């Protein structure tokens, strides 16, 4: 699957004005569709939402910088392993991320944008999953 970085950046720019709403939607979607992961998170998600938003911004900002991106994702994978997250949780996270982005991107969302985000998330899940497995 090919990543169209222009579409990823355009769709992210469209959701940026809705930052906390996007992350709140993400967590509602994740917990509604995968309630078993709720115990991995603090009761109050304000800090977690901020960290998620920061990570998304870093991901988009470093799309063309492979070494930087791999370093960020490897660190995230290790930290998440310490919280009890498993590589098996990553598909649920990806589905909820795509749902949140789709919900807020408006006209910037298309089947091509979704395919590019899915490809980006494939890299995220693969890199974080390997780091999680190595940390465990």
Task: Describe the fold and architecture.
There is one protein chain. This protein is an all-alpha fold and 136 residues long. It has one domain (5-35, 42-135): Globins (Globin-like, Orthogonal Bundle), CATH 1.10.490. The chain contains 6 helices and no strands. Helix 2 crosses helix 3.
CATH architecture: Orthogonal Bundle
Mean of the pLDDT scores? 95
| Biggest sheet features | none
Strands, count: 0
Stated plainly, the CATH topology is called Globin-like
Helix count, DSSP H or I runs of 4 or more residues: 6
The gyration radius over C-alpha positions equals: 14 Å
Name the beta content range. under 5%
In CATH terms, the superfamily is: Globins
Q: Helical proportion?
A: over 70%
Multimerization state? single chain
Order of helices and strands: HHHHHH
Number of domains: 1
So what's the overall shape? globular
Q: Would you state the CATH class? A: Mainly Alpha
N/C terminus separation: 29 Å
Structure summarized in a few sentences:
74% of the residues lie in helices and 0% in strands. The protein has 6 helices and no strands.
Key features of this structure:
0% strand; mainly alpha; 74% helix; 136 residues; globular; Globin-like
Which helices and strands occur, and which strands form pairs?
Elements: H1 5-15, H2 19-33, H3 46-61, H4 66-82, H5 90-105, H6 111-135
Helix pairs in contact: 1-6, 2-3, 2-5, 4-6, 5-6
